[in-house]
Fold:
Amino acid sequence: MKNWKNVQRYQLAILVVLIVAIASASYAFAAANTVPDTKAGAGSGEISGYVASSVHYVLNATTPTTIDSVTFTLDSTPKAGSTIKIKIGGTWFSCTNVAAEVTCELTGITVSPATSLEAVIAD
Structure:
């Protein structure tokens, strides 16, 4: 009978050692994780538009009913990397700028469906 109790104590001791070892390893793994600092916030600022002037439609030299490009001047220079697009004839086109001078190359737009010009500029 004494021998059986010793075996049970020995098994219990091994079980406790295993549980402590697993718990320690889990804690060590969790303690090793790092999370970088991050930022979050809210605020407000004025959103003002640009004023476009000197809008010029460049017609195709061979087929003058086709518009090759549109150029216009903004009242101020957009920030570097700004997105500039125009919508003409129901299609959006990307534009480029040099300072406040904007050029938009078009494809497949004829004069007849070009009844309006919409410009979007996002800093």
